[in-house]
Amino acid sequence: xxxxxxxxxxxxxxxxxQLYESDGTTEVILAADDVxxxxxxxxxxxxxxxxxxxxxxxxxxxxxxTPGTNDVCVRIGNDTSGITPGNYDAEISVVDNSETAPAxxxxxxxxxxxxxxxxxxxxxxxxxSSSSSSSS
Length: 136
Fold this sequence. Notes:
The protein has about 140 residues and is mainly beta. It has no helices and eight strands.
């Protein structure tokens, strides 16, 4: 399965997803002590946006899920100010705390595209200029 998230720089965007095993039909049932991660970046370098379900970022970005289901919500908040608009690779994964071999196994669940767009009305904290024209 794959996804495509469109977000606007420094604007809040919620994205709901249901997680499935690689067969595309078996639901990933999340336990209360699992950790869901959402990472955005290019290549194998440090992610441009790195979210997880055990903390909320200063700009309000977070990942939440409903235990006993495969329902996840990714909220992109005002944590995109340092990210250049464009297309990025994105991944949602689960740290399964019930796994013992290896302990706390990280399981890839979904890959997709994260598209960050400029905003026409400007960004939070950014001065906007207006142009005026006169007619004679």
